Amino acid sequence: MIERPISPRKHDRLTAFLQAFGLRAVVTNEADAEANLFLVTGDDGDSASHIVVRVLGGVPSNGAFSVLVAARIDFGGVANPLVGALPEELVFSLAEQPQMRGLADALAMEVENSRCGGRTVQERLCEIIVVLAVRRAIDMGRVNAGLLAGLAHPTLHPCLVAIHDKPALGWRTETLAQLTGMSRSHFMEQFTRTVGKTPAAYVTSWRLMLGRAEIAAGHSVKATARRVGFGSAAAFSRAFSRIYGYPPAEMVTKGLR
User: Fold this and answer.
1) What pTM was estimated for this model as a whole?
2) Count of Cβ atoms closer than 10 Å to residue 6 Cβ
3) How far is the C-alpha of 239 from the C-alpha of 247, rounded, in Å?
4) Could you tell me the sign of the dihedral formed by the alpha carbons of 36, 39, 44, 45, in that order?
5) Distance CA 245, CA 104 (A)
6) Is-contact 14 131, C-beta < 8 A?
7) Is the C-alpha dihedral spanning 52, 55, 57, 63 positive or negative?
């Protein structure tokens, strides 16, 4: 009997962000200053050649590109840590990305031919393209220090995924180190150098970002504190105020976001 090698477990590095902060696309035009996803043509000008993602908006840096389709991608606001972690611009050649190629062709066709439900189809295609672009950026290591560098790290990313998926667990440094297969000291050094903060500080910051999103969505402070891993509403409020400069209750009373 021939034994097959066991494939390493694959970890979903993006769903926690998409569920917590959302992702929404609106097809627009290249004149829209907030457009941040572009389907562009190269020299021939006939068909799509590249996908360009500029998280904070702005036209593609390559002036030779002509825009076929533009869209505004809302990542759930600047509170989503992906917004600050992604490079200023991501450019993908469709000749090298067959999966994106098919989606880009479908998107261009939907925009060109007005059909029933076309707007919905266009927006869903844009959302899928963006998720694939971010996924590809992580896989290809097109990231610097910080969150995405941690998610791209071959041994650190399992512990980050675990934190993101189960923020309310009482995460200890030793437990997180075990998830990576590193010693405690080596894990601490690698995590801090790659992500830019200690594991404990990252756990707290992730809980607070989730808590802020939940409060903005209308959940109570008490219920939110419990869901994101704080022992009490008071502890959550103190940590929240220390980072954001105001207590979570003010997000409701003053309409802060």
Assistant:
1) 0.84
2) 6
3) 9
4) negative
5) 43
6) yes
7) negative
Please, what is the Cα angle at 107 between 101 and 110, to 5 degrees? 145
What type of residue is 11? H
Helix (H, G, I), strand (E, B) or coil at 199: helix
Note the pLDDT of residue 247. Answer: 93
Q: Tell me which CATH code domain 153-253 carries.
A: 1.10.10.60
Triad 248, 249, 251: Cα angle to 5°? 70
Please name the residues in contact with 128: beta carbons below 8 A apart, sequence gap of 6 or more: 103
**49 in helix, strand or coil?**
strand
User: How confident is residue 132, by pLDDT bands cut at 50, 70 and 90?
Assistant: very high
- End-to-end C-alpha distance for the chain, whole angstroms: 60
Hey, how many other C-beta atoms are within 10 angstroms of the C-beta on 170? Answer: 8
In the chain, where the domains are located: 15-139, 153-253
pLDDT band of residue 147 (cuts 50, 70, 90) is confident
